[in-house]
Specification:
133 residues; mainly beta; 4-stranded parallel beta sheet; 3-stranded parallel beta sheet; 2 helices; globular
Length: 133
């Protein structure tokens, strides 16, 4: 059975809680989640697109490492660059391999592309206005 949604009202998710979950088919996180802890989605091979509507402030190491089908992640409502604590966050994903994309608000694209650790993925950072539905 695939997990496709988390209950609204969740504000935090523990380290590695979904690591190695091959049936995780989330498409959106609850808007109250503002931080992604170490390795939360590591090796979640069924995760392919994730919308994170909350005011995300920080992403820690290996969050999406090994998500071999993650081709799109979007942060439509952030108002400033998210702290990316480790550039390994997207290792072994289509984003790191150049075939997946990170979508952010149009006015923040350049800031994300030049920010610490995000610059590793500069070519994969796109304006949210270019995201196909």
């Amino acid at each position: 059975l695939a997990l496709t949604a988390l209950p609204n009202g969740i504000t935090s998710i523990s380290d590695s809680v979904f690591a190695d979950c091959s049936n995780l088919a989330l498409t959106e996180l609850p808007s109250g989640v503002t931080s992604l802890s170490m390795g939360i989605f590591k090796n979640c091979t069924s995760l392919n697109s994730l919308n994170i509507p909350g005011l995300m402030t920080s992403i820690y190491g290996s969050v999406f490492n090994g998500c071999t089908n993650l081709t799109k992640i979007s942060f439509p409502n952030v108002t400033k660059v998210i702290s990316l604590y480790d550039k390994s966050a997207f290792n072994s994903t289509p984003i790191a391999n150049g075939t997946g994309y990170i979508y952010v608000p149009d006015d923040l694209v350049d800031s994300f592309k030049s920010a610490t650790n995000w610059s590793t993925y500069a070519d994969q950072i796109k304006p949210i206005s270019e995201m196909e539905v």
